[in-house]
Amino acid sequence: xxxxxxxxxxxxxxxxxxxxxxxxxxxxxxxxxxxxxxxxxxxxxxxxxxxxxxxxxxxxxxxxxxxxxxxxxxxxxxxxxxxxxxxxxxxxxxxxxxxxxxxxxxxxxxxxxxxxxxxxxxxxxxxxxxxxxxxxxxxxxxxxxxxxxxxxxxxxxxxxxxxxxxxxxxxxxxxxxxxxxxxxxxxxxxxxxxxxxxxxxxxxxxxxxxxxxx
Length: 214
Known about the structure:
By secondary structure, the chain is mostly helical. The protein has one domain (2-91, 153-213). It has helices at 2-15, 26-40, 47-69, 76-89, 95-108, 111-122, 130-159, 161-181, 189-213. Helix 1 crosses helix 4 (76-89), helix 3 packs across helix 9 and helix 7 (130-159) crosses helix 9 (189-213). The radius of gyration is 18 Å and the shape is globular.
């Protein structure tokens, strides 16, 4: 059933581009931010353990629904739910669209737009040198291809909807933790530890699919 759901999920991913904005899930970002703020109060606990607990709480509803559906009605409700979870686990944006925007900016020679689209892909500052900037964008595209698609597919094949959503949750945790703290070495120690733990947890789940992707 997972294989059928994956095929259907990939078809939906290609056909439902107009609905990609629904995958941004701002309410989940706010929930994660609130969770990270609560974890900061538990500075005496291991940061990695706290991040894992938060991730498990966010994954638990998907795991529970998957178990409840099981093989009911020949597995059709499960397949529908799996496709739904896959749709929200991919992305949130299509990396192809980001690359097209960057290439268009390069063709136009619009330096301001080149920098803007490059920063959007890299998710950080880019070098002033054009060649170095292009190389950094190329590296970021490979990372995003893994994060937004290949790793989700990998974990879905391993653990079904639970695996796909778990990977997306760790990516969201990483993004929110980095967005909150950034790369500031002088950040509050508890906050910085949570950021590093979120980055490490996501890195562990991304390691195998990243190697397969490369």
